[in-house]
Amino acid sequence: MALKGFKLLLGLLALLPSAIGLAFPGAEGFGAQATGGRGGDVYVVTNLNDSGTGSLRDAVSKSHRIVVFAVGGLITIDDRLVVSHDVTILGQTAPGQGITVYGNGVSYSNADNTITRYIRFRMGKTGDSGKDGITIAEGANMIFDHVSVSWGRDETFSINGDVSNVTISDSIIAQGLEPHSCGGLMQADGGISIFRTLYIDNKTRNAKTKGKNSFTNNVVYNWGAGGGYIAGDSDGQSYANIVGNVFISGPSTSAHPFTRGNANFHAYVSDNYYDPDQDGTLNGWVLAESTDNYSDVDFQASPYDYPAVNNLLKSGSDVFDYIKANAGASKSRDHVDDYLINTELASLGKTGALISDPTASPINGPGPIDGGKALTDTDGDGIPDEYESQLGTSSTVSDSATIASNGYANIENYANLLI
Ligand SMILES: *[C@@H]1O[C@H](CO)[C@@H](O)[C@H](O)[C@H]1NC(C)=O
Ligand SMILES: *[C@@H]1O[C@H](CO)[C@@H](O)[C@H](O)[C@H]1NC(C)=O
Ligand SMILES: *[C@@H]1O[C@H](CO)[C@@H](O)[C@H](O)[C@H]1NC(C)=O
Ligand SMILES: *[C@@H]1O[C@H](CO)[C@@H](O)[C@H](O)[C@H]1NC(C)=O
């Protein structure tokens, strides 16, 4: 009897989303436990319109949805996109080169419990003045993974306020526009993890952090005069782990990788590489712990007990190679990320620029994006027929929202097969 009861319990646990605990297999950091729209409906985006039935704006306007794409291409938006709470956006389901949202920024303020993967948000100079590429002013439990965000008019990816449990992993934060030209604020007492992400071509705030921050295995390339990692500069208390990052100077770089900081900034620092010579090879050194190297931070002997990466990349070249291959919406990179990675970053100091107009050469705007062609999906539930058989789901009955025995929705299991 006891064994039977135990087996029954295990069976039930396997069916509950809480049994898996992770936003997706391999999710890490403070935001790893977001469940997004799991348990709700699946919304298939079927056009590239700014609004209306079948658009991304309509899709994210309501909670408890997992959003997938039967189209690829450029979604040009006039007003800012506002994402609701309990939403999952799975950009890897889009055919072709995937989805780029262009023309304004995105608000995740109060978008509690969201999962966002494999999508590009490129704001641009037509976006609202004084606004960010991605903004979170309030909220908890969000994970952004393989997201490319660029061309913010104020900050590019900015978190500032009563915010908890956010992860930004395997992403690209690029080319903050003049006159602000910022990577972004990462200011929250409730925990922000930034893992394996590329900050590139931002004059300053790569990032500017305050509060609880875990910054691991990132590359910062071609920061400008404002500084690379800015260790707060104000009254609030900060507690940071800054481990295994690589700072590579470029043509725009004139400041040290770590700036500001005061006795309120408590940090465990370890294995941070600095390659300042712009000589086209990855070299340089590990910064020794000293206030000259890290500004006036209060050094800690051991790391804070924050959720860590599963596999810490130990050498600067491992971090560089990983980010070069994987950062951003890397299932199919657009020409912008391709240029940033393979022309600028790969030059190791020789090429890079701070820009004010992303429609000018060499970037020439966000498109074109190859839209590809969606696979046949007879029941329209977001899972193409050929994957339905692989997953053991029905191609004639809409069952993509159903929770599978591993705890993920069928549509999530499909999306996880694509990457
Ligand atoms: C998308 O926009 C086009 C052009 O404005 C319009 O013709 C079409 O009806 C829209 N689609 C939907 C589903 O609203
Ligand atoms: C953040 O995550 C921790 C650990 O899972 C949890 O205890 C806490 O309640 C979360 N905070 C919020 C505001 O959800
Ligand atoms: C900064 O780090 C470098 C490389 O480890 C080291 O040579 C240098 O002495 C450090 N600066 C100070 C002031 O300690
Ligand atoms: C980053 O800032 C600079 C300076 O504002 C600006 O010229 C450029 O447009 C922005 N992008 C970069 C890379 O700086």
Automatic annotation (TrEMBL):
<dbReference type="InterPro" id="IPR012334">
    <property type="entry name" value="Pectin_lyas_fold"/>
</dbReference>
<dbReference type="GO" id="GO:0046872">
    <property type="term" value="F:metal ion binding"/>
</dbReference>
<keyword id="KW-0456">Lyase</keyword>
<dbReference type="InterPro" id="IPR011050">
    <property type="entry name" value="Pectin_lyase_fold/virulence"/>
</dbReference>
<protein>
    <submittedName>
        <fullName>Polysaccharide lyase family 1 protein</fullName>
    </submittedName>
</protein>
<keyword id="KW-0479">Metal-binding</keyword>
<feature type="signal peptide">
    <location>
        <begin position="1"/>
        <end position="21"/>
    </location>
</feature>
<keyword id="KW-0325">Glycoprotein</keyword>
<dbReference type="InterPro" id="IPR052063">
    <property type="entry name" value="Polysaccharide_Lyase_1"/>
</dbReference>
<keyword id="KW-0732">Signal</keyword>
<feature type="region of interest" description="Disordered">
    <location>
        <begin position="357"/>
        <end position="384"/>
    </location>
</feature>
<dbReference type="GO" id="GO:0016829">
    <property type="term" value="F:lyase activity"/>
</dbReference>
